[in-house]
Amino acid sequence: MCVGCRQRAETGDLVRVVAQMREDTPMIVVDPAKTMPGRGAWLHARSECISTATRRRAFAAALRTPGLTVDPEDLAEQLGVIDHQRMAPRSRNR
Ligand SMILES: [Zn+2]
Predict the structure, then answer these.
(1) Of 29, 55, 59, 91, which is most buried with the most CB atoms under 10 A?
(2) Within a domain: residue 90?
(3) How far, in Å, from the CA of 37 to the mean position of ligand 1?
(4) 75 Cα–ligand 1 center, Å
(5) Domain span holding position 19
């Protein structure tokens, strides 16, 4: 199930993320090979699902990691998701 939109989906349609300690702070990292140890959370590689899951603090709940730091823009970048509405190029001359 996707932690963002909470819809059931095939594992192949979702990406796995896990919590990893980075300098004593739990951070969310993408597990592209889906083989990292520990509890994983699954979501669509979509900006809506990332932002919804972040807003609901669904990652911390799904990964059972209180205080989990989630940077939705960093996560979107890791997933190769570009939010065209919020992440428009800052300056591009035409
Ligand atoms: Zn979703």
Answers:
(1) 59
(2) no
(3) 23
(4) 14
(5) 11-78
DSSP 57: T
Q: What is the pLDDT of residue 11?
A: 87
Q: Are the CB atoms for 40 and 63 separated by under 8 Å? A: yes
Asked, for residue 27, whether it belongs to a domain, the answer is yes
Residues near 7 by beta carbon (within 8 Å), at least 6 away in sequence: 1
**How far does the centroid of ligand 1 lie from the alpha carbon of residue 44, in Å?**
4
Which tens digit of pLDDT belongs to each residue from 14-60? Answer: 999 999 998 999 999 999 999 999 999 999 999 999 999 999 999 99
pLDDT (tens digit, 9 = 90+) per residue, 68-79?
999 999 999 999
Ligand 1 centroid to Cα of residue 71, in Å, is 17
**16 strand-pairing partners:** 31, 42
Q: Beta strand 25-31 with 40-43: parallel, antiparallel or unpaired?
A: unpaired
Structure tokens belonging to residue 4? 């963002």
Domains in the chain, number: 1
